[in-house]
């Protein structure tokens, strides 16, 4: 459908979050890039704000931060919590995505100008609960591998506490309680995803030690 509207569609096998975004940057023919994932929607006020910015090219910053809000599944409500306000509109000559396989964030060059837009992006992060479980499984696997690479070691205390602490953070401090039943489900999902990455780090660390021991001469 995108090609019918004149879009150029390019396939690239998944190398990781940061690497995929860097591949997309390399395909751009223009300096300005606006990164929008397939499960995200630009809300009208953000659209109008971006258009207004480009009415005065001489006043443009090099990169723009914007808030991304989850749309609660099976509802029309946007979560009030914004975990991050990433740079999504930027000059490629002034910043690039990191090469991290887990984190997809634009890293702006030194001595660049940035601004924050007030408009929001709506994030439809769930297609189904089946999809959510698959996504948590894949992402926690990548997170554990990334922590292993950075030399992080598992903690039995974190394994026991992380789920309950993360539920309280999600439900109370992130404000998921405002979303009723679906907010409660989101808080549980958030807590379970944190628990998953801890037990997978424990698993990978155990396998690493066992592999080293088996390779020792007997």
Can you walk through the features of this model?
- The protein has 218 residues and is α+β, with helices and mostly antiparallel strands.
- The chain folds into two domains: 3-123, no CATH class; 129-211, no CATH class.
- The chain is 44% helix and 16% strand.
- It has five helices and seven strands.
- It has helices spanning 17-27, 44-53, 129-149, 156-173, 180-214; strands spanning 32-34, 40-42, 63-70, 87-91, 95-97, 106-108, 114-123.
- The strands form two sheets. It has a five-stranded mixed β-sheet.
- Helix 4 runs antiparallel to helix 5.
- The longest helix has 35 residues, at 180-214.
- The protein is globular.
The computed structural class is alpha+beta
The average pLDDT value, as a whole number, equals 92
- In sequence order, what are the helices and strands, one letter per element? HEEHEEEEEHHH
Ranges where pLDDT stays below 50 over 5 or more residues in a row are none
- Number of separate structural domains: 2
Identify the strand order in the major beta sheet. 1-4-3-7-2
Roughly how many Å apart are the termini?
62 Å
- Biggest sheet character: 5 strands, mixed
Overview features:
single chain; 218 residues; alpha+beta; 2 domains; 5-stranded mixed β-sheet; two-stranded antiparallel sheet; 5 helices
């Amino acid at each position: 459908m995108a090609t019918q509207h004149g879009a150029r569609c390019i396939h690239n096998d998944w190398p990781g979050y940061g690497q995929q975004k860097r591949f997309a940057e390399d395909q751009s023919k223009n300096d300005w890039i606006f990164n929008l994932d397939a499960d995200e929607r630009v809300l009208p006020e953000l659209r109008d704000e971006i258009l207004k910015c480009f009415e005065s090219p001489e006043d443009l910053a090099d990169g723009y931060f914007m808030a991304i809000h989850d749309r609660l599944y099976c509802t029309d409500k946007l979560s009030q919590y914004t975990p991050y306000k990433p740079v999504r509109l930027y000059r490629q000559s002034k910043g690039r995505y990191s090469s991290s396989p887990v984190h997809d964030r634009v890293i702006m060059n030194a001595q660049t100008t940035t601004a924050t837009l007030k408009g929001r992006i709506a994030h439809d992060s769930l297609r189904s609960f089946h999809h959510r479980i698959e996504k948590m499984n894949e992402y926690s696997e990548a997170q554990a591998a990334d922590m292993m690479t950075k030399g992080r070691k598992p903690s039995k205390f974190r394994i026991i506490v992380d789920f309950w602490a993360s539920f309280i953070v999600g439900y109370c401090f992130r404000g998921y309680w405002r979303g009723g039943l679906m907010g409660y489900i989101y808080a549980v999902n958030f807590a379970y995803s944190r628990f998953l990455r801890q037990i997978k780090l424990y698993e990978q660390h155990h396998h690493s030690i066992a592999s080293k021991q088996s390779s020792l001469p007997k």
